[in-house]
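Notebook entry, cofactor series.
This is the third protein in the set we're modelling with a bound small molecule. For this one the ligand is zinc ion. I'm keeping the input format identical across the series so the outputs can be compared line by line later. Sequence and SMILES below, as received.
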Amino acid sequence: MSSGVRLLVLGKQGAGKGTQAVRIARHSGVPHISTGDMFRAAAASRTPFGLKAKEFMKRGELVPDDIVIGVVAERLAKEDVVDVGFVLDGFPRTRVQAEELQRLLGPGGLDAALDIDVPTDVVIDRISGRRVCRTCGATYHVDKPPKVKWLCDKDGGDVVQREDDQPEAIKRRLELYERETGPLLEFYDGLGLLATVDGVGEPDDVFDRINDGVETVRALRLPSSRGPR
Ligand SMILES: [Zn+2]
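Returned structure with ligand:
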């Protein structure tokens, strides 16, 4: 991937989306913009939309679309992004947000929407194998347990499976994700921007596939959207 990309990364929980998003950003020398970090930063620096978003978060309510989009617009207008590009992680969540983002960036403003695809049963295996220290929150995996059986290496706390990580709970979250994201994938596919990448296997191999996928989408789009008009 050459430097200066404008990408967004989609993928269900456990697909390795966050890890790969950080890696692409570092590799391409662009900011990694995760939704969580972006909202915290906007609230802390008291931007107009950041302050509005904070009100909803304080009350534990879902931040409405127009405010979410406002926060994103403020972030994408910053110099570091305008100069080189970005990797968006966790946004958009809905089709409405995706349409707004397209409007914001304009045609040719997004290089690709990357979908890191991992089958549901693989994701359930990954997440349901996770174990967490009750005391400090350190995470382990059934394949990589603490040294002393199920006592935390750091503080000796009990290492347990969270209720959220049990298969039934994971399945419910994944179903919700698919309901929300299905229309997004269709939207980006229709724009010729969707790059679906097989997310099963070693992180290095997945990263190589990502590079290939993004290059393919860019090459296909080159004549119409990036050429002289
Ligand atoms: Zn611990």
